[in-house]
Amino acid sequence: MDVEGQVARVLAELRDRADPVRAANERRYLKSAFVHLGVPVPAIRKAAVPVARELPDRGELLALAGALWTVEDAGRPVHEARMAAVEVLVKRVGLLEPGDIAVAERLILDSASWVYVDNLADRVAGALVLREPGLGAVLDDWAADPCMWLRRSALLALLPGVRTGAPDLPRISRFGDALIGESEFFIRKALGWVLREQSRKDPAWVTGWVEARIADVPGVTLREAVRHLPDGDAARLTAARKAAQRR
User: Fold this and answer.
1) Neighbours of 173 (CB within 10 A)
2) What is the pTM of this model?
3) What is the Cα–Cα distance from 85 to 180, expressed in whole angstroms?
4) R_g of the chain computed on alpha carbons
5) Which of 57, 195, 220, 236 has the highest Cβ tally under 10 A?
């Protein structure tokens, strides 16, 4: 495959859809120092997915994703090119091998925002962990990493297992205990998301886990965790946390 040509093809379509007003608003919202073209996610996906479908093998997939990720304009990364790189990996994640979780880790470490991290964690790393449970040991390392984005990723990578009805409950509990005291909003929110999704499958487990730690659960985590719990349980946990905060 002509990787350079495929990158040019994706970029040409993205530039055709550029919206300077949207670009300025998005850059401000994300507090981004990158170049933004102002292309919405569905249009980025529309540009990237057809190219991804044509990839013959893993090597070409990694080459194209890497080339898109490193696209620059005036010395700055291009937001939509990075988003396209993630979409390419997500679309053909089945081509990746277990060791390619290191690729997801490298990109997460090179990310400056949740806007790249979340899909890399959930739909790339999480997909690999679901396929190869032994990769959970990598998530153990991420959960203790100094990089906030890797700690967030350790939680989000558990979501595919939750959604498919094969949750890694010991890791959810262990990571939750390790990260429940985090001051970082993005960690607190991610823990809440995992608990929220698990509550769709097993509300009793989530209720019990939260109740046992009610004095320590951050407000943003609790609000997400109780969102799909039975009304009575949600109200009881919310009241219990308020009472614990008053003590």
Assistant:
1) 14
2) 0.95
3) 32
4) 20
5) 195
Instruction: Single out the residue of 119, 130, 197, 128 nearest to residue 152, CA to CA.
Output: 119
d(CA 163, CA 183): 27
Residues 222, 88: Cα–Cα separation, whole Å: 34
Distance CA 196, CA 206 (A): 8
pLDDT digits (tens, 9 = 90+) for 71-107: 999 999 999 999 999 999 999 999 999 999 999 999 9
Q: Look at residue 245 and tell me whether its pLDDT is greater than 90.
A: no
By the 8 A CB rule, do 67 and 55 touch? Answer: no
Contact assessment for residue 159 and residue 194, using Cβ atoms and an 8 Å cutoff: yes
End-to-end CA distance of the chain: 65
